[in-house]
Amino acid sequence: MFIFWDLKKAFDKVPRPAMWAVLARFGCPPDFVTLVRGLHDGMVGRVCHQSSLSGPFSINGGLKQGCVLAPTCFSLYTAAMLNEIPPDTPTIDLQFRMDGGVFNLARLRAKTKTTKTLLREMQYADDNATPGQTAEDLQRTATTYNTVYERFGMQVNTDKTKALIQHPPGQILPNINTTINEHTLEDVEQFSYLGSILSSTPTCKKDVENRIRAAHSAYGRLSCRVFNNHALTMATKIMVFQAIVLSTLLYACETWTLYRSDIQSLERFQQYKLRQILKIPWESHTTNVAVLNQASVTSVEATIIHHRLRWAGHVQRMEPFRLPKIMLYGELANGTRPRGAPKLRYKDQLKRTLALTNIDPSSWEQTARDRATWRRAVHHGTTAFEEKRKENEEAKRRRRRERQEQPRPPPTLPCELCPRLFHHRLGLSSHI
Predict the structure, then answer these.
(1) Alpha-carbon separation of residue 191 from 3, 62, 159 (angstroms)
(2) Which listed CATH number (3.30.70, 3.30.410, 1.20.120, 2.30.30) goes with 2-85+120-199?
(3) pTM for this model (two decimals)
(4) pLDDT, tens digit (0-9, with 9 covering 90-100), for 116-134
(5) CA angle 110, 115, 120 (to 5 degrees)
(6) Does residue 62 surpass a pLDDT of 90?
(7) Cα separation, 158 vs 143, whole angstroms
(8) Which residues of 408-424 are buried (b: 16+ CB within 10 A; e: fewer)?
(9) Beta carbons of 240 and 222 less than 8 angstroms apart
């Protein structure tokens, strides 16, 4: 369960006296605080409307819009607010262990060798997400954070602040009805947080669908000026497609946990757009491999694999206290996975990816510690995967054509009511 917070005019609501006190609290020299204060005191503004300017008016609150210091000052102010959150606020407990191999989950059962930490909030700029394990925990979190925000002069936008429940597999939880200042927060099925879609089902399907829609929109905006422009070369169009459309499609793909249906949806989008750019009609029966070769573009799956391995190398080289590394080398301290076929995890997909690219899952961490060596391993592994994938596609196509060219045996199943013969029992039963 999560609450996604929205603050009304966050930068404009910061009380300046409190801001100067926060700077001093974090150890900024008095001369520096006086300098920053001088940039804000006596600030005036004017409104431009239809080429005419209004009279000047005083701006006595908030941070200076457009100033390079504003984001840093607001981050310090946010840190001061989060420091006032009581330690008994509900959190999500994590346990991790950096040795023993990331795929050896049995190492986390050693209680004396694992380290426990907690996840209280996920703050980025003025966007914040706070987790909870029960409806009561989420209500306590909402009340606590709202109290701290108000104490620091901020105001929560209850209309845009949402609650999201991630249901356990096979269960549908009721609405939690979290309230802030007697206003019930809306329970949503999905929410866009930092450009990614988080949904009530713990999969990336909604995020993939959102990325495909965004890529369609990016392609449409460039159709007239680029892709349908006869003055541009085909190489230029392909470069623009890769730089803008594919970048939009695969935003944050290194963190996705994908199923085969998700990859197929992404591949279909790329094939559809490349065939439009290359002017390849469907009547030509051009294979997907031929389209990729003509455009000199790799498949979406190979691109995602490259990004995933590159990100895994970055995480492995992080300091042990960084949250991404803790999440990769740890798990939830509470709860169990269901039996049968549980949801695919990022670790599961990373292990499969390493095997597909001929990288030993038991020694990849040692390889990733050296950035140049890991980059070469990722490049060679991704190239080998793409070549093998193309060979498998061509072999599958040849087998399909061979089956079509083989003479079909005559029907042998007779109908009891007429002299007609059938090849399969399904056809016979449908006929009867």
Answers:
(1) 10, 28, 14
(2) 3.30.70
(3) 0.85
(4) 998 888 888 888 899 888 8
(5) 135
(6) no
(7) 12
(8) eeeeeeeeeeeeeebee
(9) yes
